[in-house]
Sequence to fold (155 residues):
Amino acid sequence: MTKDNHQLGKFDLTGIPPAARGVPQIEVTFEIDENSILSVSAIEKGTGKSESITVTNDKGRLSKEEIEAMIRDAEKFADQDKALKEKIDAKNSLENYVYTMRNTIEDKEKLADKIETEDKLPGVFNVMAPLRFHPELGCETSPWPRYLSGCRPGQ
Fold:
């Protein structure tokens, strides 16, 4: 997961105008040359704004031994990482579904004018609240059914 990554460099792609979720399209390119120099670039396709960074193997980087230890740890915890990734993917799928449903219900061309206000499934707007306010809730203690909490059977 990202918390376990070693930061090699940083840049911010700023100046992107506010837009609906999923609308900005950002293309990120990673290139490694024959000298192990990493170049990363990002461009927002709508505005053409771009940034880039080049990372060389200067001091402050990981030693060969540290890299090998990280690889061993990654192999050791691969099953746990896979399970966590599945849970995060399920939560992201739920968030995307809720976002789509909310937009469909609020869109005047789709459903907004066809459904009475009191019938608009207020739960759609609050379905993620338990996991957002209590991220420590696991699958066994979640107040939501498994299909809403991002949990898989047997967890």
